[in-house]
Amino acid sequence: MSAHPPIIAVQDKSIDPATNEMVVLANDNQMSTVWDRFAAQKPQCKFGTDGICCKICHMGPCRITPKAKLGVCGADADTIVARNILREIAAGTAAHSDHGRMLVRTLKMVAQGKSADYQIKDPERLRNAALDFDIKIEGRTDSEIALELANFFMTQFAWSDEPNATLKLAPKKRQELWEKLEIAPSGIDSSIVEVMHRTNMGVDHSYRHLIMAGLKCSLADGWVGSAIATTCSDILFGTPKPVRSRVNLGVLSDEKVNIIVHGHEPTLSEMLAVASGDEELLAYAKSKGATGINVAGICCTANEALMRHGLPIVGNFLQQELAIITGAVEVMVVDVQCVMPSLAQVSKCFHTELVSTSEIAQSMGAEQITFDAKAGYECACQLIRKAIDNFERRDKTRVHIPNESMELVAGFSNEAIFQMLGGQFRSTFRPLNDAIIDGRIRGVVGVVGCTNPKIQSDSAHVKLTEELIKRNILVLETGCAAIACAKFGLLTPEAALAKAGDTLREVCDVVGIPPVLHMGSCVDNSRILMAATNVLLEGGLGEDLSDLPVAGAAPEWMSEKAVAIGNYFVASGIYVVLGHPLYVAGSENVDRLLREEMEGITGGKFEWEPDPVLAADKILAHIEKKRDALRINVKKERKALDMKERRAL
Q1: Tens of pLDDT along 384-427?
Q2: At 521, which CATH number?
Q3: Do residues 487 and 515 lie in contact, with contact meaning Cβ atoms separated by under 8 Å?
Q4: Count of domains in the chain?
Q5: Most Cβ neighbours (<10 Å): which of 212, 251, 303, 549?
Q6: C-beta of residue 252 within 8 angstroms of C-beta of residue 401
Q7: Are 267 and 352 in the same domain?
């Protein structure tokens, strides 16, 4: 391994030493990274960041200025800003829901016996899901149940006379509010089509009407498409349970064949995880001079493979180029979402082969090997052999793997939390509710989202999370936010002892959990919605999700998917703090609707707060407001109970 260059003392790129080290190496070798391209874009378009640039029709593009307060068609800033948000929500919903559609197709294929490579890994999850949607399970095989469930899930994409059936997973009072507000979606695809139609030139001009339509479309993401994706993944690949692994660039090996999976769809990564233990392939790798095969992940494919196989995570979104720059990656396998087009140029500087596997997402400069789930294991073996053959081409003088890696514990599905809190024979959320009611846990916050070069990488995720657990708030995380905090040790039980407040520390110590629970990939934000629902159903904390002392946050978000996520949390009655605003600054009316008036409509609202400490202050204030409303902040006198009273309890 080559000698490490000196790390610059002060770096604005990231708080992660491994990231900074590789950025310095890239600069020394005149290789462009995402931060260089971000700098080249400055100053970024003010009309774009204010949301007042419109190019929906070809009379434009139009921009709103003090001299031109209307577009050519007559649209004002309110209409333009609202339409732009809606199109982001539609794109984010499409991304998550198409992920779900792929998994439904795989489930149906398995149920029909068309692939021997996949199986139903969690029959209990299958049967519970079937019961949720009134599908008969008595006297039926798993395949019969799975086929009917897959066909049912497929109906949720098309238009229907009735609201989506998966909305029944939400609390009853919340469902009633959605129906009253007329924002209950009646199909994923039709919701996206409706948004695209409404935002077409000359259709819907009312900013309030448009924003409510955006909430409706976002619900088709969180409570339908994403919920379906999570359910199918659990059935096919197993419902996650706590698992230990490691994270950061240091998980790459200078002696093994390194294969990176990057993207979001878990079907191929599942097969790569299985095939990497194939004795024949391991022997082939050794014949080429490697000591083994190391499959590791980036972004949400990493989270999927981690939760179910314990595979290590190389890094999150902004580290994808840096992984190749280590010179130690034989093959990077990409599918859909968050894959930078720059990877092809970076890989050309090394021996790394970039392979694009999705039929809908081809990367220029990458080799196209379209993945076929019917021959999943064979395809995985083909890719591993390609990586093994490429190992001999690795230039050892250019290998530069940072030493940084950190242990983590992941895989906290709702099912796993139920069992950890209640034991094998009495699965329950009761201990969590009791801890919230007693004040040992002040509330629960979901910290999610991407990394973004506008913000020092990982800094806002880590600082906000540290501030929250210090204030005795339990944190649930997904996606790149979870990877960021994992790199700094926050996803280990030991972190509770070092960083959590006194009472949260006690709870974590008794249960044996970290103060920050990894719940999966970004599509698994549906798990956070269900966690909140399970808390509500357990009782004692109100009647609707908007009553709970909970919040959501996305400190470093960048994707249209995050826009959809934020909106479906707000539509579900949850307070959401974003580290930088949606593109709404050009419309005071839209900004006011989202940040102030929305709370009186759905019970949830947005907040923009870049400072993670101030964000934690605002979140805690919101949580305490909810606790006051629930009257659980009233101090109770401690009373010594006699044996008779203990038995009664």
Answers
A1: 999 999 999 999 999 999 999 999 999 999 999 888 876 555 56
A2: 3.40.50.2030
A3: no
A4: 3
A5: 303
A6: yes
A7: yes
